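Thread: quick sanity check before group meeting

JM: Hey all, I'm pulling together slides for Thursday and realized we never actually wrote out the predicted structure for the chain we discussed last week. Dropping the sequence here so it's in one place. If anyone has concerns about the input, flag it before I start.
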Amino acid sequence: MVKYPDRLRKLIELLQELPGIGARSAERMALHVVQAHETYAKELSECLLQARMSIGFCEICGAFTESQPCDICNDSSRQQNVVCVVEKPTDVLTIEKANIFKGKYHVLNGVLSPLDGIQPEDIRIPELEERVKKEAINEIIFALGTDTQSEATIDYIVKRLATYGVQFSKLARGLPAKFRLDYADELTIASALENRKPIR
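JM (edit): ok, ran it. Output follows.
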């Protein structure tokens, strides 16, 4: 068994906590960093810290941002009356890569799961209702998963907002069972958005 210096071992352990990084990849990255020029290591560490300290969540939509509101909410050229509802801030980035959706977003920060104690007030459903009241939204597109909790969340929101005259739709074809946006490519997302299906 290789005996790493303590700080190198700790660096490998921290890198291994990153999504998709196994033990061998973490080891290669750690060895690259400790052998790199000192200015690179310093720039990398400063960038990591600055990113963590300066990036937060948009007060309107919940997406990642460095300013309030975020660039998407602040963009008057986007469709103001169409909102795409997603589960996580990373889902906004995934849909934006497809370069087809030109409306606004709303991040729920989760889906309903009564067994886990996650109720409507625990995620950003009340904030969505407030936006519907104030922003003249006439279509909500659900870009959630296809699992039971996501479907239950869609059903709940549709019922809760039924009296506001909003049109509801969700992503269409090309999405496998228990689909998550994280695993879809840009073409699949673009097709699913273009061919979205009305709800009710």
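AS: nice. The first helix runs from residue 6 to 16. Residues 6-54 form a domain with the Helicase, Ruva Protein; domain 3 fold (CATH 1.10.8.420).
JM: adding both to the slides.
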